[in-house]
Amino acid sequence: MAWGKAGSTTLGSAGDDIDITDLTTNKFNQVLIHGLEDSANITYKQTINNDGGSLYAFRRSGNGGADGTGTSEASVGINASAFGEAFIVEYIIAISGEEKLGIAFDCIRTTAGAGSAPNRDETVFKYVPATLTDTIDRIDINNSSTGNFATSSNITVLGSDITPAAAIPFPTNVQTGSRAEITDTRKMYHYNSTGSVTTSGSDTIITFTEDGTFTPTSAFNVEYLVVAGGGGAGGNGSSTIMDYITIDTLGNATDFGDLTVGRSAPAGVSSSTRGVFCGGHGGGYKNTCDYVTIASAGNATDFGDLTSARQIAAGVESDTRGVIAGGDLSTNIMDYITIATTGNAIDFGDLTLARYGAAGVSSTTRGVFCGGDGTSDNVMDYITIASTGNATDFGDLSVSRFTVAGVENDTRGCISSGYDGSTMQNVVDYITISTLGNATDFGDMTVARQYLGGLNSATRGVFGGGTTGSVTNVMDYITIASTGNATDFADLTVARSGVTGVQG
Predict the structure, then answer these.
(1) What is the pLDDT of residue 172?
(2) Predicted local distance difference test score (pLDDT) of residue 417
(3) Is the pLDDT of residue 164 over 90?
(4) I want to staple 146 with a disulfide (CB 3.0 to 4.6 A). Which of 40, 58, 63, 271 is the partner?
């Protein structure tokens, strides 16, 4: 509800009356009264529309005491008697065809100084004009005691549902480039130098130029699992294949395009529009970083290089920065890139332990690296993505393992599958990314495996590919905010392991 000034009166000399006779009419009225006594006590009596007949009824309590009532009164008694300065706030509703109801609260100074507590009154009242269709266009406050209202006593009335031209003028300084969308038609409009601001009676008319109707494309709001590269059962290989899926729709993956260099086990980081694949293995360890525009299928483009060649690293990201950590041969290196800007990676800091095959999960501010083959396979580290520096211990996974995959929403990360050194795992753990501590069991995958890739929307995580001892094309999904076992999603275009996912 917007309030605008409907009228105001300030006394220029002492007197018994404070009147507003030219109010802009409104359905909702807020009356602010500031009364000052001249020499003796003041009693506040109120009439509306200059009606002094037996048209008022009220109920009043002073300082929380017993109610006093008045019916068929010639005015509303807002307080019994005021000593000194008074501040009164009223709310009056004036609906055509209905009795006019009001609520008033006052604070009376009493004796000056902090050694004396003020008094209070609470009053409810109704005004019943002879014609209920009447609006409120006048308010009078009268003193019936021996004193006077002093100079500068004031009444100000605010109203809502006021005629804009009379009370709340519509802004006419519309900034060039302002845009608007009509929610039912999805039409988009903008204001430019050819637009105009005119008035028609009490209405202000702003002319916008139509841009057209917003229609999502097939790629809009699509979450892609771009499963890049892949190879055999050990995660090795030199595939250039990239697949994509629509994450909220079950079904087999579709060809997206090719990497610049065939490889397996790259790390993936992404913004809302771009995915970057870093490192991997293909005829040796790679430092190559490629990028794709996630909403547009096509071949990858060279982005730059990591600080060192490696595979099976883990990635975390905000919407602007990606951090790539660890990798063969059991390094503790962390690099970062600015996802929107091509170029070589820059040193970020070090993991707490050198390792490879970890999973990365992240919120908009924090990244957590989970598991990995090193001196301890259950370790979890975290970083603040926007800064640089070494990682800090977060907690432990429920089962020690590496070559795992991670998915997340902005609050929870889920870490799936992997290899404990002797057995393929199907376990899924979850963590609350903002809260340090050990991981908790989430449920199980449909198939135990390692070297798989993961991606997520805000609600769903999908894990694809990997090896069960032989390469697989299986994709599973979970609902990240809940717990429970994974469900079959569909299949990749080609069975392979050592894959990674990005989403937009």
Answers:
(1) 59
(2) 94
(3) no
(4) 40
Q: In this structure, which amino acid lies at residue 182? A: I
Q: How far apart are CA 410 and CA 318, in angstroms?
A: 10
The pTM for the full model equals: 0.58
Nearest C-alpha neighbor of 403 from the set 233, 225, 229, 223: 233
Of 142, 152, 149, nearest to 38 by C-alpha is 149
What pLDDT was estimated at residue 248?
Answer: 82
Mean local confidence (pLDDT), 403-425 = 93
Is the pLDDT at 139 greater than 60? The verdict is yes
Asked if residue 367 lies in contact with residue 317, where contact means CB atoms within 8 angstroms, the answer is yes
User: CB–CB of 70/168 below 8 Å?
Assistant: no
**Residue with tokens 């404070």, as numbered in its chain:** 18
Query: Are residues 87 and 33 in contact, defined by beta-carbon separation less than 8 angstroms?
Result: yes
> Residue 74's pLDDT is what?
93
E strands in 423-503: 424-432, 440-444, 453-456, 460-464, 474-479, 487-491
Three-class SS state of 50: coil
Q: Within a 10 A sphere around the Cβ of 396, how many other Cβ atoms?
A: 18
Cα–Cα distance for residue pair 91/100, rounded to 1 Å: 10
The one-character DSSP state at 312 is: S
* For residue 301, pLDDT beyond 60: yes
- Domains of the chain (ranges, CATH numbers): 4-160 (2.60.120), 179-213 (no CATH), 227-491 (2.120.10.80)
With a CB cutoff of 8 Å and minimum separation 6, the contacts of 114 are none
With b for 16 or more beta-carbon neighbours within 10 A and e for fewer, the 374-394 pattern comes to beebbbbbbbebeeeeebeeb
Look up residue 489 and give its two tokens: 């999603």
Residue type, 328: D
Angle CA 350–264–276, to nearest 5: 60
Residue labelled with tokens 């598991």: 371
For residue 64, give both structure tokens. Answer: 């929380």
Three-state secondary structure readout of 340-404: CCCCCCEEEEECCCCCECCEEEECCCEEEEECCECCCCCEEEEEECCCCCCCEEEEECCCCCECC
pLDDT at 222: 36
Mean pLDDT of the residues in the chain? 85
Cis peptide before 11 (omega within 30 of 0): no
DSSP state letter for 152:
T
- Say how far apart CA 240 and CA 256 lie, in whole Å: 11
Distance CA 417, CA 377 (A): 13
Q: Which residues contact 113 (CB under 8 A, 6 or more apart)?
A: none
**Burial class (CB within 10 angstroms; exposed 0-12, middle 13-18, buried 19+) of 463:** buried
Helix, coil or strand: residue 338: strand
CA dihedral over 349, 350, 355, 361, signed as positive or negative: negative
Contact 29, 159 (CB under 8 A): yes
Phi and psi at 396, nearest 5°, equal -125, 145
272, 504 contact by CB (below 8 A): yes
